[in-house]
Amino acid sequence: MRHGSPALLVVFLLLVALPGPALASEGRLEAKVVGKLPTANYRAASVATGDAVFIFGGRNETDLTPAVVRYDVVTGKATVVGWGLPEPRMSACAVYDGRHAYVFGGANGGKELDTILQIELASGDIRMLDVKLPSPRIGLSAIMYGGMTYIFGGHSNGTMISAILRFDPLLGDLSTMGATLPAGLAGIGIALDERGILLFGGNTGSGGTDRVMRYDPEKDDLTVLPERLPYPVFHASAAGVNGKVLLIGGSGQLVGWEVSRATDTIIEFDPSTGRSQILMAGMPSPRERAVSASINGRVLVFGGQQGVRALDDIVAISPVKNDGDGLDGPVLRAALPVMMLCVVVTSVLTGTRRR
User: Fold this and answer.
1) Which alpha helices (H) appear in the chain, and where do they start and end?
2) pTM
3) Which of 3, 88, 178, 282: disulfide with 64, CB 3.0–4.6 Å?
4) Between the CA of residue 325 and those of 24, 90, 98, 138, 332, what are the distances in Å?
């Protein structure tokens, strides 16, 4: 009985042995640059409206800005709108209630702010609300849940804040919740899940933390989850997509690093299991203090900071497209040299035995 070529058998075995993502690209992500901001920017605040992303203020290497940038989801273009903030503002946070954006705190240079801006995005009409934050603060994080805005942490003139605030946009009322963060934290990644508000990492004032927390607004209860992030991180941008949360870049302290610095990694957190992992996909370059938005099944990341450098790129994190042959292109290309080498070696050995 005549058997097939040993070389072909080796190729077949290698194909079978390739990891799951190589055979089915479902679940794999890639990050690539899809556009540019009008100018480099980091430390901005942002909101997504469905058809657009608005980016408020921020700074580059040398200057703060009051400008507002609108990214059009359909055209993929980012332009400066015809109106701006009342003054330059960085390190604020923002939410959107379906009509108005609200911008909380931040700083104008060395002056930290306690003000809350209400912005009608359709007209650009801006009103400074009478209600103010309990103290001027930067590096705070906010998100909407059940029609209310919840604001977490930040720091005020160097003092780290552990308070959780609730802002009612209908009444213009601000209150302090009974629950607090386990410690004063700034630069927390924030996202929603079915059971409440997820909080990731944060800066304690002396470095990052690897904690993952869940806040239940209905019970006013904060829980530190048992699973930790792969490494301590802060100033990372968080966005929910396809039932998972992506924690993008940030200032991290990876294994072997003596200090925190900007990373190019993407951490995926699964709310159903409470576990996180570092994805194979990475950002085109390290960055922290970027802003992001989840739009139509992908995450868009705008700008960021790498050391003293401000970034102007717009990065899309999207599912890897299947090439149609059942193999993911990048993985197949990486495996081909090994397969070809095995074919050659096996052929030579087979020929030697025959002689």
Assistant:
1) 6-17, 20-23, 329-354
2) 0.84
3) 88
4) 10, 48, 43, 50, 10
Q: What is the DSSP string of 219-241?
A: TTEEEE-SS--SS-EES-EEEEE
* Coil, helix or strand at residue 344: helix
Dihedral sign, Cα of residue 90, residue 101, residue 177, residue 248: negative
Whether the CA torsion 58, 64, 68, 69 is positive or negative: it is: negative
Domains and CATH numbers, the chain: 30-319 (2.120.10.80)
Q: Which of 78, 179, 85, 174 is nearest to 128 (CA)?
A: 85
H or E element: which one contains 265?
strand 261-270
- Quote the CA–CA distance of 145 and 197 in Å, as a whole number: 8
Question: Distance (Å, rounded) from C-alpha 136 to C-alpha 33?
Answer: 35
Structure tokens at 161: 């804040």
